[in-house]
Amino acid sequence: MSFKTYHAFSVTEARKEEKEELPGTVADNAPVVPISAQLKYNIDVVCEYIVKKIPIPERNFISPPNMIVIRSFDVNKPGFEVDEIRGGAAGGSIVRGVLKVNQYIEVRPGIVVKDESGNIKCTPIYSRIVSLYAEQNELQFAVPGGLIGVGTTMDPTVVRADRLVGQVLVEVGSLPEVFVELEVNFFLLRRLLGVRTKGSEKQGKVSKLAKGEILMLNIGSMSTGAKVIAVRNDLAKLQLTSPVCTSRGEKIALSRRVEKHWRLIGWGTIQAGTTHDVPPSPI
Q1: How does pLDDT run across 174-183, given as a tens digit for each residue?
Q2: Cα 242 to chain centroid, rounded
Q3: Rounded Cα distance, 253 and 255, in Å
Q4: Are residues 97 and 135 in the same domain?
């Protein structure tokens, strides 16, 4: 079978599966574009659809700034003199609000430790913005959209090697909540994604959530474990293995361990939760 024949066969089979799976879902009647990133087929078409069909989200410049940290690092090189040492840097996307140079910020949950009794204690990290960058462009302020690099006065040891990934950078005094338990309204997929099947065998169905099982949650850029402590219809109460700074209405992804791998099984929306007491700001 030639490559072109095989490629046409694969597209035909994929379209057949789409007709069976998509009706009745949110993707019903949505445009489907076959692509191959390795062979660079139709990547330009996907980009065109994104630009022309997906509306630009509304940007909120008024609310207190809130940035999801997706990486953090120490910008200092070995051998730097004491006077040359700079504070740690964080990179991420601003969800809402505007960050400005010389603005005082805090990172939540911050430093998380357990005491002798096993109780969790969160201490936010307080700092000041000394620089803002978008790629190689130095900024005086940064707005939602795109990736932003934030230079701070934080101890480089605290931020090195992506130690702040999953945390939230906010303005001092905006008081975002830190949760240790979540109540979510969830929706499960019909079938498992990314699991190998033999021949024409269909993907396995996603079973219902069970009390006591362990899931992995993705909230913003944070990945954390969660224990299901109660389930009722499409509502679940989850106990987190580590505290998370988030807000009600935020979307989360649910994954279950299948054949030694975490597989996406559904998504949900945070409805409520149990918050953790955070020490008041010293600034």
Answers
A1: 878 999 999 9
A2: 15
A3: 7
A4: yes
